[in-house]
Write a structure and sequence with these properties.
alpha+beta, 46% helix, 8 helices, 203 residues, globular, five-stranded mixed beta sheet
């Protein structure tokens, strides 16, 4: 794709780059990847890892011992930062995700960022978001990245609930380009719960 000839795609990618820089600044301040190393192996996941940020969310998975005190030891330091406006703890050890979760709501330049950190057992054998990062990066190019960003922005503007992984599947596996096409796609292919999906590499 020649970005000079596709102004809309260029603007989509520029907006994403701006969000990506803001996410980097949030990570630089909070340092969740560095701080979680005391308790396991932290990995950046989700849209921030793929370069597909539309909403201000950062997802991190940590693989280690499922100890509640680990996350709260870190939370004590984060809570002292006045930009951290809220913290949430989720105990889902007995559920399909089989983990412990913490979410920070951090205000950066007037924007509330959700930093979601999910602690999973080191031998967790369910779908791992971290394992999707490499395949997604290999599958994406400027064309598909712009298509995904365009669709996600349209869904957010419409106020529609959606699963990011469904958007990725729709665009990368089926060539969906519009919200209308996505609505039709969802009638047959939308997912619920955990899903173990990998995209084909970009050609």
């Amino acid at each position: 794709m020649n970005l000079a000839e596709d102004g809309d795609a260029c603007r989509l990618l520029q907006r994403q780059a701006s969000r990506q820089e803001a996410a980097r600044q949030v990570l630089d301040v909070l340092q969740p990847l560095e701080r979680w190393q005391r308790f396991g192996e932290p990995r950046l996941c989700g849209a921030a890892a793929y370069g597909l940020l539309v909403v201000p969310d950062i997802d991190i998975e940590i693989y280690g011992d499922l100890r509640v005190e680990s996350g709260f030891a870190l939370l004590a330091a984060w809570a002292k930062d006045p930009a951290v406006r809220r913290a949430l703890f989720i105990n889902a050890v007995g559920e399909a995700d089989a983990g412990l979760g913490w979410e920070l709501r951090y205000h950066h330049q007037g924007v509330p960022w959700a930093v979601q950190m999910w602690l999973l057992a080191g031998d967790y054998d369910g779908p791992r978001s971290a394992d999707l990062v490499g395949p997604m990066r290999s599958a994406l190019d400027d064309v598909t990245r712009a298509a995904i960003l365009r669709l996600k922005e349209a869904l957010v503007e419409r106020g529609a609930a959606y699963r990011s992984i469904d958007v990725y599947r729709a665009v990368l596996d089926h060539g969906v380009e519009s919200v209308e096409e996505y609505d039709r796609w969802c009638r047959s292919y939308s997912s619920t719960g955990l899903i173990n999906w990998r995209p084909a590499p970009s050609r």
